[in-house]
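Re-run with default settings, no changes from the original entry. Doing this only to confirm the output is reproducible before filing.
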Amino acid sequence: MKQPLHEKIRADFEARILAGMLAPGDRLPTEQELMQEHGCSRMTVNKALSALQSAGLVERRKKAGSFVARPRFHSMVLDIPDLAVQLGERGKRHSYRLTRRQVRGPIAGRDEEAALANGAQLLELDGIHCADDRPLAVEHRLIATRAVPAIVDGDFDSISPGTWLLQHVPWTEAENRISAVGATRREAALLGIAPGAPCLCVERHTWRGGDPITYVRQVFLADAYDMVARFGPSGSGGN
């Protein structure tokens, strides 16, 4: 049976996207260009593009055209994810670039910082996470030096602070806060988006026993990351 033309167009672009021939953010030919190339109607082209959009491979923007969508990386809401591992599982190369590092005391009037410092100092780290050299998230982190004294001399040229902590400091309690935010000017510049563009913000506090370990704020590109949780009724007997 002959394959419908819209399915043929869809399959062609799907194969090129999955093979990496078309990268996230690349622009697809316009509907008019596709109509001329394949000698078909706008309806046929629209069917192909709509199928790609439904599969999460293409993002269609009104008056701008169709673009290869950024991959979405999933994380369990109640887990503490290691971005390097997550990206590696999806065939992406993770990198982290440190943009600021300082040891300081808590800022006066910031009760949460004082609680985290617990009478000592904080290591403040700012950086950016990338997937295949493309910006994914901006990170601001505070770490309690009283709880993790070795972190002060940590080398973050080849490993991110979050990965270092997961490998060296077992946590017993965590609190996540997830919200939608507009990118600040600094965040927008680092992520390559317009100031005020919608982003996913994840804020997390962790403790070991009763000792606070770290506070982190990560601002992700809105179309590149999401949080997933799966729940079941207690007593169901499932694993």
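The chain has a mean pLDDT of 85. The longest strand covers residues 94-104.
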